[in-house]
Specification:
The chain is mostly helical. It has five helices and no strands.
Length: about 140
């Protein structure tokens, strides 16, 4: 996992620089800068909207006594999508919008859920609870 993360830290910025240079050559530097700023503004607005929707849904489910597990995964996707949109570049913006739009977020949620379930089964994830009902006596 660490090696993949390190590889992404090297490859993604290099690809971003390549795409930005290519975009600057094709549509011009001013238009490229305007597009970067515009995607940041649109992304921040969408992240705020989707984040508030996720919070409202989680509160509603919790008030009805339901566990808001799906909404928590939505919240993780929205958080990651918002952070990725803060980095300048068209590739990371595409990934960020992919995580913010509810229809495309569902695809990533499926992968995330399988990853979490696999980590729980292998014992790599441990849950700690302060709930007195869950404590061993």
């Amino acid at each position: 996992m660490g090696k993949i993360f390190l590889l992404l830290l090297i490859v993604v910025p290099a690809l971003e620089i390549f795409v930005l240079i290519l975009s600057g050559n094709v549509i011009g530097i001013p238009m490229t800068i305007i597009l970067i700023i515009l995607t940041g503004i649109i992304g921040a607005t969408l992240a705020k909207k989707e984040g508030l929707n996720a919070i409202r849904t989680a509160q509603m489910q919790a008030s009805q006594g339901q566990m808001p597990s799906g909404v928590l995964l939505d919240g993780i996707c929205i958080l990651v999508g918002g952070v990725v949109l803060l980095t300048p570049g068209f590739i990371t913006d595409a990934i960020g919008f992919f995580l913010l739009i509810p229809q495309t977020r569902a695809v990533f949620k499926g992968f995330l859920l399988k990853f979490i379930q696999r980590a729980m089964k292998s014992g790599n994830v441990v849950f700690v609870s302060n709930n007195p009902w869950n404590r061993k006596r």
